[in-house]
């Protein structure tokens, strides 16, 4: 399947880029690791199941809840939050986002300069090859498509 960049996608489906951008921000705000959206204006904490209101797409209530209730616990239980697998995942995701957002070719992951930059920033990180990156982009595309469909049907 041909991959559309989000901007072409927005054009084709007539979705405002503003909406796309907000949903992208929403999606990648780290606080979403701890909350699920249960209705349009309600979220549920994954750690303690408490429901919070979600207004104007603002994550501040969630952040406050998380910081007040869970941040300390998590630091005690897992002092290595941003290392290892989750760190790799975060970088993978950032690269996928970069490819989508900046309309970069998949061959980006084979570019010497890009590799050197990553090596400098994160010596332990190993870049995925084209194939897994392509799979991740396809997944994002499908997610985005579903999301846009829902918004259009609303
Ligand atoms: Zn909670």
Automatic annotation (TrEMBL):
Matches recorded under InterPro entries: Znf_BED (IPR003656), ZnF_BED_domain_contain (IPR052035), Znf_C2H2_sf (IPR036236)
One MF term in the entry's GO annotations: DNA binding
Listed PANTHER family: ZINC FINGER BED DOMAIN-CONTAINING PROTEIN 39, ZINC FINGER BED DOMAIN-CONTAINING PROTEIN 4
Protein's UniProt name: (spotted green pufferfish) hypothetical protein
The species this protein was found in: Tetraodon nigroviridis (Spotted green pufferfish)
GO terms, biological process: post-embryonic development
Residues making up the signal peptide according to the UniProt record: 1-17
Pfam family, one: zf-BED
Cytoplasm listed as a keyword: no
Domain BED-type as annotated: residue spans: 26-77
Top-rank taxon, per record: Eukaryota
